[in-house]
Amino acid sequence: MSKIDKQIESGEYFIREHERKLNKKRAKLEASAVKTVEKQKQKLKVYQAKEEAPREKQTKKRANDAPVDLEKLKKKAKLIKSSSK
């Protein structure tokens, strides 16, 4: 099939030349619009932060295993009071 036969079959052969050019232009604009949207999406992907796992709280925990010697603490408190006077 030749180009003219295809145009006759689709009805494009009978359309005015001006309308034919407009149809081609519209098709190009639609294709370029789709491409620009895809490019913009790809650019935005670069700037989006990746999802991170939630962080655990980093608090210092006291070691409750060591027993507190009250007698030593009382002696220290007395020494500090007596030295400050």
TrEMBL record:
Compositional bias segments (type: Basic and acidic residues): 48-57
Region (Disordered): 43-85
Organism ancestry: Eukaryota, Metazoa, Ecdysozoa, Nematoda, Chromadorea
Protein name as annotated: Uncharacterized protein
Origin species: Caenorhabditis nigoni
Record field: compositional bias (Basic residues): 73-85
